[in-house]
Amino acid sequence: MTEYTVITDAEGLADAVQKLAAGTGPVAVDVERASGFRYSQRAYLVQVFRRGSGVFLFDPPAVGDFTALQDAIGDEEWVLHAASQDLPSLRELGLEPVTLFDTELAARLLGHARVGLGAVVADTLGIVLAKAHSASDWSTRPLPQSWLEYAALDVDYLVDVRDALVAELAAQGKTDYAAEEFRAVLDRTPKPAREDPWRRLSGLHAVRGRKALAVARELWTAREDYAREQDIAPGRLVPDRALVAALLADPKTKQELAQVREFTGRASRSQLDRWWAAFEAGRAATDLPLERAPGGESIPPARAWADRNPAADARLKAARPAVEALAEELQMPTENLITPDLLRRVAWTPPEPLSAASVGEFLAELGARPWQIAQTSQLIADAFVQSAQSAQSVQGPHPGPDNPS
Question: What number of other Cβ atoms are within 10 A of residue 172's Cβ?
Fold first, then answer.
């Protein structure tokens, strides 16, 4: 077994940078975080591979400044798997590619049945990777050698996988599609913060009443603040189910809260004053939250369309199978051809006058890529026209001089 060393200082970084700069071709990059263990999404290990250079493992908290690494490889093509997951953590370190190749996204566009890294490596190279440590706590120090081997293998074959997928994309005529998708991943702006993030509390549907929801909001906020302060995943302090159990118990005193058996978690008793203060703050609140979250610009779920907007329902039911058939013909998942949300939005409020061009402009405003628009805009417009004609034929001609009622 190869013995891997983690780079933790400026001297090790300088040596690695020199070797990487002397390598050839694309650079494979991966990140290990401690999701589920830590509050932050920071990187706790960065793996880099380049042909002619080898694999390098960096400890971000110890190294600190990655300017030299960015200078050495920043202008090269980076190969990542599921890049959208790793780019935020890399950017936090000042590491960002100019161009990238996403092996997961390429596999999706090619219609691979499985797109996890292990599956894609197996499908393209015939090599089986052990995925034993994907959910480990990568903030652990020192990192076990078996974990380091696992992390190194995540990048060791990535450039070879990229080359195999490049050939597949060319064979299926999807090279340009992939290039547009990769560019979109790089250019995508972060989603704005959710207006009421506390509503993500699992089990909140069981909590009734605006006053109780105000307490839920305060409890969630108190846990979030403490989790951020301790850099521990909130659910490890007090699980969602425990917060909801405390809410449903509706304790009248701090002592009653302490006696709620389902109120569990490592901080449920050690931070009892914190949780009770949240109860009191919620009960004293005057800005009571609504029972349901404000809808904003969202559209109703499709199952409600037949009653609320029958014409939109007919448009969606006409367009969806046509899009699905095209996706099957192109050998890719429907959501990669056009996302369900985009299709619902254009079906709910189609542009006027209706045409392939106006549908294309509508989709472009919502972030669809040119290749997606070229493939689907005429198809969607035709389906909408067909649905309108079908509705008209069912209704029959309007009464008139030649068609008395």
Answer: 16
